[in-house]
Amino acid sequence: MPFNFIPRSRHLYKYLKDILLLLTFVLSLGSCYFFQENGIEVVIENNSDNAVSNIMFSTTENLSPIQYKSLETGETRTDFFKMKDHRTDGSYVLTFTRSHGKMEKIGAGYYTNGISLDRRMLFIIENDTVITRTSQDQ
User: Fold this and answer.
1) 25-76, pLDDT tens digit by residue?
2) Residue 47 and residue 7 in one domain
3) Does the reported pTM lie above 0.90?
4) 71 and 89 co-located in one domain
5) 97 and 124 together in one domain
6) Which residues lie closer than 8 Å to 57 by C-beta, 6 or more apart?
């Protein structure tokens, strides 16, 4: 009887060892997600014929906005918007003033419980519109 028990114990040990290695691997991969900083990369591109000014990117919670004085024709700005103090659901907001003095406010995207659902938010300012795109890719 003891001889039948030993092989089963070794088999069980190997099985548990394999499960433990698999679990360690999965948790290691998942930790990259858990330890990345909460926020979203913001890209603002001015494809209009004129410069825009007073650019501000924020959320509906309006915490720690990113601000630029101006953005010339053909210029692109990229920044990382940190969302460490955000706690509710909301969307992203871009406000700016066109060269003729008209202020525009564009809402786009969505975050929940203070956590961004996307990795990148792109705003392309055209002469008569603003194109928005979101991406989950880095």
Assistant:
1) 666 655 544 556 889 999 999 999 999 999 999 999 988 899 999 999 999 9
2) no
3) no
4) yes
5) yes
6) 42, 44, 65, 66, 67, 79, 81, 92, 93, 94, 123
